[in-house]
Amino acid sequence: VSSTQDHNKPFPECLIDQFQSSNADPSNVVYSPNNASYASLLLAPNLRPESTSPLRPLLIVTPYYEREIQAVIYCCKKLGTQIRVRSGGHDYEGLSYVSGIPFVILDMRNFRSVSINTNDKTAWVEVGTTLGQLYHTIARHSKTLAFTAGVCPTVGVGGHISGGGYGLMSRKHSIAADHIIDAKVMNADDHIVDRRSMGEDLFAIRGGGGTSFGIVLAFKLQLVTIPGTVTVFNVSRTLEQNATNLVHKWQYIADKIDRNLLLRLFLRSITSPIHGNRTIQATFNTLYLGRAHYLLPIMQEKFPELGLLPEDCIEMSWIESVLYFAGLRNEFVDILLSRIPTGVYSPVYFKGKSDYVIQPIPVGGLRGMWRFLHEEDENMAELQLSPYGGALNDYSESETPFAHRAGYIFMIHYAVSWTRPGNSESERRMNWIRRLYGYMAPYVSKNPTAAYFNYGDLDLGTNNEGNTSYAQASVWGLKYFGNNFNRLVRVKTKVDPSNFFRNEQSVPPLYVSA
Ligand code: FDA
């Protein structure tokens, strides 16, 4: 990268100069607002709640080569322009493509090669790969290998795996970040480092999010072994069918049951198809890593109240289960290669929040949750309860930044959606989810009230535009990372003391006052 002084040149000129000086071709890589593809590139797969800023990126850069990323870093540093790195664009608050100060988007969609080694059961995966593409590629190589990560196929590897990565095999194989065995990262000095050169600092991107520490280019992942046949079921019960007691009982078994079994639970308010009244529907959406005839006795012993029948169970391959849980059951497996969200993940405006439960919520508390769900229109609000325990507890709280281990029964994901931004409907729904979150406070973890980093929530607090103190950032940092936040601050202070990589909730470095 050229070292000419271009402080005063606007960003596009600086970048074009940099490209030319390294004989790189900016066409199909650098998009300005005048370019016909700019608007469609800007559009994120997951629409954010409300525009936090009317600013649009100065440029969108979709690199193919590392030297193109180095050119972007160079110009951002010279001109004080902020960089926002986007891999899959599913950030809950749009932090990969929105900023209140002049910025460029580094969109990693062209970094998407996957190479699988079936001998040592590993994969090198570039960050612009989607989970769907990763799962598809693994399945093409082997029927008994898989990877443990999230459910939505269009989520990007870059943000998801560096920030945790919970999925339907997490009780058996824990989260994605626990399976990072190496990585290629471009640091703030635009050098590429790997596990050997990063040493202990690799810790930071194993659940602490890439955002604060550098640009992750690729991960080396340890794959997991799976049976050739898995079993799924999706069984719903309404209040008239004993849903309250079932949900109450579920809390006592969900984290302790056989670790091959992950009984996810969705809660919504619906109009009963039988009685025509508004009721709560509890849907047990489940993956079992094995055949149905092993699953049924487990359910009979631990959760007979659900009344699971053999005909509720569907056997399939793991890759078919990926389609099943994405609501793409009748599609060909190649749909997993698409970057366009479909099925249950069609884009909406939405707000998500998270909580962790360490003591079962009493029946009275559950009834209060039902009242909140009834306040919202059908299909607009949903609670997702994701069980922990099993392999998640095999790691200590401090092994990776992801601190939510032994003692956590389940995570609650609150979500509300709407169709158009910036109107009274969106305001009302944002207000609803915040009130619900407040209502839940007595029933969830405290000191800190834990939250899941991958379900980023700016309500928990934000950085200042200038320096942010440790005390200020620890308000949300301790919620996301527990005491690991302190270690993340130390890594940040070492690898990026000038705070080049930052956003509204990035880990700040410790500032030493002069
Ligand atoms: P995006 O590109 O928006 O990046 C997210 C954050 O990471 C941003 O701050 C960005 O700057 C940073 N970043 C991205 N790439 C980087 C890189 N290469 N280097 C450094 N920083 C980088 N989670 C889960 O655990 N299980 C699940 O099942 C789901 N399901 C799900 C469904 C849907 C519809 C959505 C919208 C989200 C989820 N998630 C999830 C949450 C998801 O894990 C989270 O939003 C991830 O950050 C998304 O990663 P992307 O790369 O897609 O996002």
Automatic annotation (TrEMBL):
* InterPro entries in the record: BBE (IPR012951), FAD-bd_PCMH (IPR016166), FAD-bd_PCMH-like_sf (IPR036318), FAD-bd_PCMH_sub1 (IPR016167), FAD-bd_PCMH_sub2 (IPR016169), Oxid_FAD_bind_N (IPR006094), Oxy_OxRdtase_FAD_BS (IPR006093)
Pathway membership, UniProt: Alkaloid biosynthesis
Can you give the residue ranges of the FAD-binding PCMH-type domain?
53-226
Cofactor(s) needed, names only, are: FAD
Native species: Sesamum angolense
Entry keyword Ubl conjugation: no
GO molecular function terms attached to this record = FAD binding; oxidoreductase activity
Family the entry assigns: Belongs to the oxygen-dependent FAD-linked oxidoreductase family.
Q: Tell me what this protein is called.
A: Berberine bridge enzyme-like 18
What keywords tag this UniProt record?
Alkaloid metabolism, FAD, Flavoprotein, Glycoprotein, Oxidoreductase, Signal
Question: Which is one Pfam family of this protein?
Answer: FAD_binding_4
Glycoprotein is among the record's keywords: yes
